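To illustrate the input format used throughout this study, we show a single complete record. The first block contains the structure-token representation of the backbone; no residue identities are included at this stage. The design step must infer an amino acid for every position from geometry alone.
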């Protein structure tokens, strides 16, 4: 699977630059199959595109909007150093989650269509100059931001070792095989549309109906971040199953989606030695 972003995680340090709209941030996150670097020192230029992803869509943002603890994903431009952490210049930063929440969008006030009427009649007075403005109040010191939340570690997550399909004559079968003697907690249900757990954006899976399998606590990567499953997306040539695809592997949660030719009844079985979760979809 081709990596989608260069780095994704929490902002753990911020350093403003000498010119407006520039600076540097450190981004740290858990290893993921779709992320190239789990830790990076990122230079932000005035030309770097920054957007905030909200429930109402993406909206423009600036370097000053970045805060400690914000969850972001970054695309690099130009060379990347071989240091640890790597160093690179950001082409685009997407703010996925604000530690303080996103500020509401305030619509601009409409421009006045004509001169505002005077509320005080100044005719006949000797007022010839504006009164001197009052001295500004001293600005309150900015509140210290809360410490960033480290990524939640799940040491007891059960490792997913294999996902395979098979022809069972009257059923199409999907098998999830795990490391160790027990299964994680699972939830198998039909969903209207597959989505990525990181961004919430739709994920394209071939089919007219979608069976989602949620596994917790589980992971599908090793300590170095490499996938433990040979293929995270595979087209399937069976009467009902069209495609299987991983849509999540983050903080102890693994989600796979099975694309079906139509809505069909299914059954779930648990097998041992090795621990397997079996899903049969009726033809």
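Output of the design step:
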């Amino acid at each position: 699977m081709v990596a989608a972003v260069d780095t994704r995680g929490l902002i753990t340090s911020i350093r403003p630059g000498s010119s407006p709209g520039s600076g540097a941030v450190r981004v740290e996150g858990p290893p993921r199959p779709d992320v190239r670097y789990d830790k990076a020192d990122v230079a932000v230029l005035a030309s770097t595109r920054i957007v905030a992803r909200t429930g109402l869509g993406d909206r423009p943002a600036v370097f000053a909007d970045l805060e400690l603890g914000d969850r972001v994903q970054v695309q690099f431009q130009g060379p990347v150093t071989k240091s640890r952490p790597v160093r690179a210049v950001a082409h685009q930063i997407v703010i996925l989650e604000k530690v303080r929440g996103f500020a509401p969008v305030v619509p601009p006030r409409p421009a006045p269509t004509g001169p505002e009427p005077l509320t005080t009649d100044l005719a006949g007075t000797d007022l010839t100059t504006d009164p001197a403005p009052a001295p500004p109040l001293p600005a309150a010191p900015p509140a210290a931001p809360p410490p960033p939340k480290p990524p939640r570690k799940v040491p007891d997550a059960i490792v997913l070792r294999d996902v395979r399909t098979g022809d069972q004559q009257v059923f199409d079968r999907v098998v999830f095989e795990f490391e160790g003697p027990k299964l994680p907690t699972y939830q198998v249900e039909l969903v209207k549309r597959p989505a990525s757990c990181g961004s919430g954006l739709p994920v394209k899976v071939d089919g007219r109906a979608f069976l989602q399998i949620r596994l917790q606590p589980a992971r599908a990567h090793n300590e170095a971040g490499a996938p433990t499953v040979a293929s995270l997306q595979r087209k399937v040539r069976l009467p009902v199953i069209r495609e299987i695809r991983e849509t999540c592997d983050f903080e102890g949660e693994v989600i796979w989606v099975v694309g079906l030719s139509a809505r069909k009844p299914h059954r779930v079985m648990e097998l041992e030695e090795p621990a397997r979760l079996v899903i049969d979809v009726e033809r």
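Structural context for interpreting the output: The CA atoms of residues 31 and 225 lie 4 Å apart. The two ends are 30 Å apart (CA to CA).
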